[in-house]
Amino acid sequence: MTTRKLNLIAPSGAPVVGIRLIDDSTSEFVCRYDDDTRTFLYVLPSGSTEEILKRDGATFLVDSQGVEWSTSDVEYHSVLHG
Protein backbone atom coordinates (compact mmCIF):
# COMPACT_ATOMS: atom_id res chain seq x y z
CA MET A 1 0.00 0.00 0.00
CA THR A 2 1.48 3.31 -1.10
CA THR A 3 0.01 6.31 0.66
CA ARG A 4 0.29 10.03 0.26
CA LYS A 5 -0.31 12.82 2.74
CA LEU A 6 -3.74 14.34 2.25
CA ASN A 7 -4.73 17.75 3.59
CA LEU A 8 -8.35 17.49 4.66
CA ILE A 9 -10.96 20.16 3.99
CA ALA A 10 -14.30 20.35 5.82
CA PRO A 11 -17.49 20.63 3.74
CA SER A 12 -17.60 24.29 4.83
CA GLY A 13 -14.28 24.85 3.04
CA ALA A 14 -12.30 25.34 6.28
CA PRO A 15 -9.11 23.32 6.71
CA VAL A 16 -9.25 20.44 9.18
CA VAL A 17 -6.81 21.02 12.02
CA GLY A 18 -7.47 18.24 14.53
CA ILE A 19 -8.99 14.92 15.45
CA ARG A 20 -11.20 14.39 18.53
CA LEU A 21 -9.70 12.20 21.28
CA ILE A 22 -11.44 10.09 23.94
CA ASP A 23 -10.80 12.74 26.62
CA ASP A 24 -12.73 15.22 24.37
CA SER A 25 -9.55 17.15 23.54
CA THR A 26 -8.30 17.68 19.99
CA SER A 27 -4.95 16.52 18.64
CA GLU A 28 -2.99 17.36 15.54
CA PHE A 29 -2.64 14.42 13.16
CA VAL A 30 -1.50 13.45 9.69
CA CYS A 31 -3.91 11.92 7.21
CA ARG A 32 -2.45 9.37 4.78
CA TYR A 33 -4.51 8.24 1.78
CA ASP A 34 -4.13 5.31 -0.59
CA ASP A 35 -5.57 6.14 -4.02
CA ASP A 36 -5.71 2.48 -5.10
CA THR A 37 -7.67 1.14 -2.11
CA ARG A 38 -9.28 4.46 -1.11
CA THR A 39 -8.12 3.90 2.44
CA PHE A 40 -7.59 6.71 4.96
CA LEU A 41 -5.10 6.39 7.81
CA TYR A 42 -5.00 8.87 10.70
CA VAL A 43 -1.63 9.13 12.43
CA LEU A 44 -1.34 10.86 15.82
CA PRO A 45 1.97 12.30 17.07
CA SER A 46 1.90 9.66 19.84
CA GLY A 47 1.33 6.92 17.28
CA SER A 48 -1.56 5.47 19.32
CA THR A 49 -4.92 5.08 17.60
CA GLU A 50 -6.45 3.98 20.93
CA GLU A 51 -6.69 7.66 21.89
CA ILE A 52 -9.06 8.50 19.01
CA LEU A 53 -12.70 8.98 19.99
CA LYS A 54 -15.25 6.62 18.43
CA ARG A 55 -18.88 7.69 18.88
CA ASP A 56 -21.50 5.36 17.41
CA GLY A 57 -18.73 3.90 15.25
CA ALA A 58 -17.70 7.27 13.84
CA THR A 59 -14.51 9.29 14.22
CA PHE A 60 -14.62 13.09 14.33
CA LEU A 61 -12.40 15.83 12.94
CA VAL A 62 -12.33 19.52 13.88
CA ASP A 63 -11.90 22.37 11.41
CA SER A 64 -10.14 25.69 11.92
CA GLN A 65 -13.43 27.27 13.02
CA GLY A 66 -13.90 24.70 15.82
CA VAL A 67 -16.71 22.83 14.04
CA GLU A 68 -16.74 19.05 14.47
CA TRP A 69 -17.29 16.86 11.39
CA SER A 70 -17.54 13.10 10.92
CA THR A 71 -14.57 11.65 9.05
CA SER A 72 -16.86 10.27 6.34
CA ASP A 73 -18.16 13.76 5.48
CA VAL A 74 -14.65 15.24 5.42
CA GLU A 75 -13.09 12.34 3.49
CA TYR A 76 -15.72 12.52 0.76
CA HIS A 77 -15.39 16.29 0.43
CA SER A 78 -11.58 16.26 0.50
CA VAL A 79 -11.19 13.61 -2.20
CA LEU A 80 -13.76 15.18 -4.52
CA HIS A 81 -12.83 18.83 -3.99
CA GLY A 82 -9.26 18.72 -2.62
Give an account of the 3D structure:
This protein has one helix and seven strands. The protein is of the alpha+beta class. The two termini are 21 Å apart. The model has no long low-confidence stretch (mean pLDDT 92).
Helices and strands, with pairings:
Layout: E1 4-5, E2 16-20, E3 26-27, E4 30-34, E5 39-43, E6 60-63, E7 68-70, H1 71-81
Antiparallel strand pairs: 1-4, 2-3, 2-6, 4-5, 6-7
Condensed summary:
With 82 residues, the chain is an alpha+beta fold. It has one helix at residues 71-81, and strands at residues 4-5, 16-20, 26-27, 30-34, 39-43, 60-63, 68-70.
Mind describing the biggest β-sheet?
A: 4 strands, antiparallel
Give the helix level as a range of percent. Answer: 10-25%
Spatial extent as radius of gyration: 12 Å
Number of helices: 1
In the residues, how many domains can be counted? 1
Shape: globular
Mean pLDDT, to the nearest integer, reads 92
Main sheet: which strands, in order across? 3-2-6-7
Which residue ranges are poorly predicted, with pLDDT under 50 across at least 5 consecutive positions?
Answer: none
State the total count of DSSP E strands.
7
Structural class: alpha+beta
